[in-house]
Amino acid sequence: MLESLNYTLFYWINATPDSPRWLIALAVFVAKDLINIVPLLAAGLWLWGPRNQVTAQRHLVIKVALAIIASLTLSWILGHTFPHDRPFVNHVGYNFLPHSADDSFPSDHGTVMFTFAVAFLAWHRFWSGAVLMVIGLAIAWSRVFLGVHWPMDMLGGLLVGMCGCLTAQILWQRFGTVLYRSVQQLYRLCFAVLIRRGWVRD
Q1: Which of 105, 110, 128, 175 is most deeply packed, by most CB within 10 A?
Q2: What percentage of the chain has pLDDT greater than the value 90?
Q3: Is this prediction's pTM over 0.85?
């Protein structure tokens, strides 16, 4: 039943040769480039911000990193345990984004972006998590629209992201203080010159 629903949703979302060129171009940008908000936002939160909020921001960045590592690990395990071909491998629908023919479930892009969004919903503010969730949904739509993923690949990414955040919370409660001190010391060592010049926060 799930596989039937997967095919139905895919055919409903997937672009065709008659789809507007501008919409396909927009989807390619969303599918390939919008994910860059993850490292850019993480770097910004770590390096800058009000002095009285920097520590909390850095805690968030470390927890997000833990969550993404846990999510991608679980994603890799699931991908090898339950291999699933991409739509274009099975000659289903239309493909508008060149991609290797590796396993599709769950989506790595979906996993990373949904992990990021769930993390901000849980540990930052509702509005920031909601904005990131909308971006995650846009990425999910674009990759199905372009024919490189099934809808269930994206749902899998969301569920894996939730599991990753739960794992990160458990790890943070046990090792967070030690981990933060270690990462902070490494940061101060590597960025000493920039810190002294006031270009980034201590």
Answers
A1: 110
A2: 89
A3: yes
